[in-house]
Amino acid sequence: MKTKRSIEPASGRLALLLPGMGAVATTLIAGVEAIRRGLAKPIGSVTQLGRVRLGKRTEGRSPLVRELVPIAALEDVRFGGWDLFPESAFESALHAKVLEPSLLEKLKEPLSSVKPMPAVFSSAHVKRLSGTHVKQARSKLELGEMLREDIRRFMKAEGCSRGVMLWCASTEVYLEPSAVHGDLASFEKGLAESDPAIAPSMLYAWAALKEGIPFANGAPNLTADIPALEQLARSTGVPLAGKDFKTGQTLMKTTIAPMLKARMLGLEGWFSTNILGNRDGEVLDDPGSFKTKEVSKLSVLEHILQPPLYPDLYGHFDHKVTIHYYPPRADNKEGWDAIDIMGWLGYPMQIKVNFQCRDSILAAPVALDIMLFMDLAARAGMRGIQEWLSFFFKSPMHAEGLYPEHDLFIQQSKLKNTLRHLAGEELITHLGLEYYGES
Fold first, then answer.
1. CB 169 within 8 A of CB 245
2. pLDDT at res. 439
3. pTM over 0.70
4. In whole angstroms, how far apart are CA 255 and each of 152, 247, 259, 410?
């Protein structure tokens, strides 16, 4: 048996810090409060309901994730965050219209107590939103220091011994990495000079890492996936993860595409379109923000199907992704996929998918799992990029020189084997020869 990794206990309160307290964040907060009170079950959460098989299938050992490794208890988490608008989590949740008002009324007291701190915001990076609840400063460095002070003040006021930050705010405009992102010295010089290539999300990531707080990015924008912040995370010994919550259409895509490849079925084209009416849909109506999301969505198939290795099957497929802002749908996103495949002797076939999902209902448990696993990673001394959390992201961060792993099932194996490793259990290869006298 492997040696169990030393993990600090999940004692004391954990601050869950959320830049952007819109639909996803308030659905997360309300959900945790409802679960605490026995009003609902944590459906969709790996940390709360997931199990990990240990040893041989004949042993019958499959503990809950939170029994296998020390996951922070929901009773110990405290929520804080920032937003462009001053409304409490209760008011924001009512506005988002994700959850039923009757449920929110039962949670009015705890949700009303969660009030956002003024946000760091730039209309140059999110063009379809504006708000008055924003910080003003002479430089981006000063704004970053304000965020650091917010973190310290919140942790002290709530009696939290540790924290995790997860970007839940809107998708920023598309940015290419530039010289200011190349190393920490250049980045911090850029902060002092208010370099336009440093987006607000990067300020949050920098502030968190400086304070020893793990940071993850739930949106597709360029944020922590730059050399400067990866360097900072390694030097401070802090976990880093992202990016872009894997929900809805991409969750389906990373499930179906591995099936095609596993059975050596060809692909001629994959057309994906979405309608979405919440704040995220409004932001993505801007071409700059949509490009950020489009790049995230388009990269999935190329990496899963590996066209250079299988040119006859995947060398020339067409891939199209569109998102349409449609206010009547609010948070009830609908995605259509028309998939043209080919089978034996090149004969054509089609797959049609119509996923009528609730964006924040899918994203909230993902957000919770990311934050609780990031806290676990920090207590286990794991620093820098946490590739084992790729399971939860559309565009997983990875080490330089590697390609990202998008296959949902490989990602799940990586996640579970990492948990086995942390618990000092044997990794499982699923070879299974030992059951037939060939071990």
1. no
2. 58
3. yes
4. 41, 12, 7, 11
